[in-house]
Amino acid sequence: MMESLPKIFKIRQKMDAPRLENVEQRVSELLNRFQLSRKVKKGERIALTAGSRGIKDKPRVLKTVIEHLRSLGASPFVVPSMGSHGGATAEGQVEVLESLGITERSVGAPIISSMDVEEVGRTRFGTPVLIGRDLLGADKIIVVNRIKPHTDFKGEIESGLIKMMAIGMGKHQGSLMVHRLTIKHGFSTVLAEVGSILLEKLPIFFGIGIIENQYDQTALIELVSPEEFIEKEKALLRRAREWMPSLPFNEVDILIVDEMGKDISGTGMDTNVVGRNQLIGNPRFENPKITRIFVRDLTEGTHGNATGIGMADYTTKRLVDKIDYPSTHINCINGMVPENARIPVFFERDREALRTAHYNSGVFDSRDLRILWIKNTLELEYLFASEALLDEARSNPRIEILTEPIDFPFDEEGNLISRF
C-alpha cells in the first residue's frame, strides 16, 4: 500500500458575506412594520417554534419577539419543533435546545415539550397530517427558522418555514409520516401538499425567516405573513443559495473533514458541499466530484448523533466509539435515509486512513493527489490543499495562498494535528 503523501498549503477563500449588524433592532423594526401591537390580544397564548439546528442568532430572535409579546400582555411559550431529533423524546428535545442556548431563562418564556400529536387534516394521498398537541393549544403560532438549501432534495422551497411546519412541528410521528410519503412522491410535492393544509388549518400568525452567510452569521431576517409564506420563501431561498458555502475546487481525490455533526448540518456534512446524497430517487450531484471522503471526528454539539457518517468512505475508531446509535438510527430511519447510518471502514490512526484513501483513489503518484482538508462543511474560509492544486489556486482570484507547502502534520501516534 502506498506510503507517501504530498505536501499541503493553507488557503483562504474570499467570500461575499453580508452581515446584519443589529439583530434585535431588525426584528423590532419588522414587528412594528407588521403592526404587532394592533394584532395581539392580552392573555393570548402564542407559541414560537424552535428547531434543532445551530442557528447563531436564533436565541436573540426568539428573545426579542417574546419581549414584544409580553409587553402587549400575551403569554408566549416555546415549543421544540424538530421532528424526531433529541432521541425522539420530550426531554431529549429540551436538551437539544439547551445546547443551542435556548432556555427559559435565555429567551424569557417557558419551553413546553411533549411528543403528543393530533390529526389536523388528511393529504390527497390518504395519510393524516399530524401536529404537536402543545402547538394546537396556542391561540397563535409564530414559525421561526433558517431558510437555506436542503441537504436531501432540490426545489423552489427547501429548508425553511414550510419544512419547519410540515416536519418539525409534527414531532416524531408527524415527521415520520411526511418522510415516508417523500419516498414515492418526492419532498417538493409532499411539502407543498402538507404545507397548504397547515396554512389553512392552523392559526399561523407569521413567520420569521433567517438567512445566514458563509461565516455562519446572520445576513438577513424577514417577517413573512401567512398569505405570502410560499412565494416569499421561494425568493428567500434564492437569496440564501447565493451565500451558500462551497469548496473552491470541483475535482478532489481525497476530502479530509475534521468534524461532522447535527450542529453543522442536518446530514452531519452538508451534501451540497461534499456532493453526495443517498436519498432514494434523488439525482447525483454534478459537482463537486470527490472520490474519497475521510471524516476524523464528531462535534461535541451533535451529542453522539452521527447521521451522515454513511456518506464517508473512511473514518476513525475514536469517532465510531462516540456514536449514540439509538439517536443516529432514529434520525436516519425517520428521515428515510438508513444509508446515512452505515459505518464506513474505520482506522485507529489517521495516517492509516489516508494511506488507504490514496490506495483507493485511482491516483498512483502522490504528487498528483488532489487533497482538500477542511474543518467542517460549514467553516470553509480557511482550508488546506495539496500541491497538485497549487497552479489552480494561483489562477483563482478568489483564493489567497497563505503558506508555502508543508508536510502533513502528524503527532507521534500518527494522527493529524488540526491547524484550523
Structure description:
By secondary structure, this protein is an alpha/beta fold. It folds into two domains: 8-15 and 245-401, no CATH class; 23-242, 3-Layer(aba) Sandwich (Rossmann fold). Helices cover 30% and strands 20% of the residues. It has 14 helices and 15 strands. The strands form four sheets. The protein has a six-stranded mixed beta sheet with strand order 10-9-13-14-1-15. A five-stranded mixed beta sheet has the order 3-2-6-7-8, with helices on both faces. Strand 7 (204-212) and strand 8 form a beta hairpin. The longest helix has 15 residues, at 171-185. It is globular.
Q: How many domains, as an integer?
A: 2
The SSE order reads EHEHEHHEEHEHHHEEHEHEEHHEHEEHE
Rounded radius of gyration (Å): 22 Å
| CATH homolog superfamily of the largest domain | LarA, N-terminal domain
Query: Termini, distance in Å?
Result: 29 Å
Which range does the strand content fall in? 15-25%
Short description:
The chain has helices at residues 23-33, 58-71, 90-99, 104-107, 133-136, 161-166, 171-185, 187-201, 229-242, 271-274, 317-321, 325-334, 350-359, 390-394, and strands at residues 8-13, 45-50, 75-80, 117-122, 128-132, 140-146, 204-212, 218-224, 251-257, 289-295, 314-316, 345-347, 371-374, 382-386, 399-401. The protein is of the alpha/beta class and 420 residues long. Helix 1 (23-33) packs across helix 2 (58-71) and helix 7 packs across helix 8 (187-201).
